[in-house]
Write a structure and sequence with these properties.
Number of strands: 0
Shape: globular
Largest sheet: none
Number of helices: 20
Strand content: under 5%
Radius of gyration: 22 Å
Helix content: 55-70%
Structural class: mainly alpha
Length: about 400
């Protein structure tokens, strides 16, 4: 838990939250939206050759490798049920950001809304974790529904609608349920007209804009997107703390992804390139951002640049990086660049030994290309796969 200028945008939230947890005199609240990928920490450590840092629970990390922030994480985990709801909210989010999702769920258990504002915020934060797990999805959506209808804090109610829309359409494919959350969100009154009010309303309209696209009504998407962009425009300029600036940048990141999606639907190639460039500048070290850029460039037919974006995603490792290398290989294959396709497919296998398509592609390459396929597979995989292992975790966001 050391800050780094090379961290992806969402990972930069780890440091302020860790520092808030160390500050016992001040009550802090996190407004970060992005949650980490389950198992990501393990992937990174294995691919980086730092297996000795892997642990399933904070206290399992050997003492020699613990930083002061990590030791505080252990202490707070051990005293979890003595913490107030504000601290529990931060700790649950923090554990999930660190891919220690199992620990967070074990500590929190099932939390139902009660009508108490602090407890309901805690219920909301806990529901965000199992909302990404199929066996817990329905319960999490039930929590979001109850908060949307009865939370005393209108911002929390609208945030629950935003979460409900996203998870209903993405994880369940239930657009009707997503529209129920939309109707409830648009009926919520007395929202504050401050920085946080603009943030949550921007998130809500962004979710509705995506719903319009998913449900096959893209012509209605620009109106909601315009609302979301307008509300988010002043967040960076009006941010007064480092954490607010990070939250604003995170919101801009999501907004750019949605704008890229809309531009692709309109076949606006130049706009896609400009928006992709802005996304790369905003979050240059995020594998997911690079995949989004690759997808967009491929959508407008710029396969060479798409392959470069995918390959740059692959260079960052993890299972998402394996996807990047595979898609780069597909682009090179279409372009007729067989050596580059072979290289990309081999790099994919370095990160994911279970990848079927790259292995099948390499097995079909004739030896006339100057490469013995069995040798290529062996050399490209043995050097890292034996040590790094493989993972079937995939980001669902």
């Amino acid at each position: 838990m050391t800050d780094s200028p090379y961290a992806a945008l969402w990972l930069r939230a780890i440091i302020p939250v860790a520092d808030w947890l160390a500050d016992t005199k001040t009550r802090h609240r996190s407004w970060f939206s992005i949650i980490g990928v389950p198992g990501l920490r393990r992937q990174v450590l294995l691919h980086a050759g730092l297996r000795h840092y892997h642990c399933s629970r904070p206290g399992d990390l050997p003492i020699a490798y613990r930083s002061p922030r990590w030791q505080n994480l252990i202490d707070l985990t051990d005293s979890y049920h003595d913490l107030d709801y504000s601290a529990r909210c931060l700790l649950v989010f923090h554990l999930d950001q660190l891919s220690l999702t199992g620990t967070a769920l074990d500590l929190a258990g099932v939390v139902e809304p009660t009508g108490d504002p602090d407890h309901d915020r805690y219920a909301y934060e806990v529901a965000r974790i199992p909302s990404r797990q199929p066996d817990r999805m329905r319960h999490a959506l039930g929590v979001f529904q109850r908060l949307a209808l009865s939370a005393a804090d209108p911002l929390l109610a609208l945030a629950a609608c935003f979460q409900g829309i996203g998870h209903a359409m993405r994880d369940l494919g239930d657009n009707a349920l997503a529209r129920e959350f939309e109707r409830r969100g648009k009926a919520i009154q007395h929202l504050p007209d401050d920085w946080y009010g603009c943030l949550v309303r921007s998130r809500f309209h962004r979710a509705v804009a995506l719903l319009r696209s998913v449900e096959g009504r893209p012509e209605l998407m620009p109106q909601e997107l315009a609302h979301a962009v307008g509300l988010s425009r002043g967040l960076s300029a009006e941010a007064t703390t480092h954490a607010q600036r990070l939250v604003a940048a995170e919101n801009d990141r999501y907004m750019l992804e949605l704008q890229i999606r809309a531009a692709c639907a309109d076949k606006a190639a130049e706009e896609v390139r400009q928006l992709s460039s802005r996304l790369a500048e905003l979050d240059p070290n995020c594998v997911e951002a690079r995949l989004v850029i690759g997808d967009a460039l491929a959508e407008i037919g710029d396969l060479r640049k798409a392959a470069e974006a995918y390959a740059s995603a692959g260079e960052l490792g993890t299972s998402a990086g394996a996807i990047g290398w595979f898609r780069a290989g597909q682009c090179y294959q279409i372009l007729g660049d067989v050596p580059s396709a072979i290289h990309a497919m081999g790099r994919c296998l370095e990160l994911d030994a279970t990848a079927i398509e790259p292995r099948a592609y390499l097995a079909e390459i004739p030896s006339t290309h100057g490469l013995t396929v069995s040798h290529a597979i062996t050399e490209m995989t043995a050097c890292r796969l034996v040590n790094a292992g493989s993972s079937d975790e995939r980001r669902t966001e």
